[in-house]
Amino acid sequence: MTTPVVTRFAPSPTGYLHIGGARTALFNWLYARGRGGKFLLRIEDTDRARSTPDATSAILQGMKWLGLDHDGEIVSQFENAPRHAAVAHELLANGKAYKCFATQEEITAFRDAAKSEGRSTLYRSPWRDAESASHPDAPYVVRIKAPLEGETKIRDQVQGDVTIRNDQLDDMVLLRSDGTPVYMLAVVVDDHDMAVTHVVRGDDHLNNAARQMMIYDAMGWDVPVWAHIPLIHGADGKKLSKRHGALGAQEYQVMGYPAAGMRNYLARLGWSHGDDEFFSDAQAQDWFDLDGIRRSPAQFDLKKLENICGQHIAVADDAALRQECESYLDAAGLPALTKDQAEGFQRALYCLKERAKTLPELLEKAHFVLTSRPIYVDEKATKNLDEDARNMLAELTPHLQNVSWDKETLETVLNGFAEAQGTKFGKLAGPLRAALAGRAVTPSVFDMMLVLGQDETLARLKDAAA
Question: Catalysed reaction(s) (predicted)?
Answer without folding.
Answer: tRNA(Glu) + L-glutamate + ATP = L-glutamyl-tRNA(Glu) + AMP + diphosphate
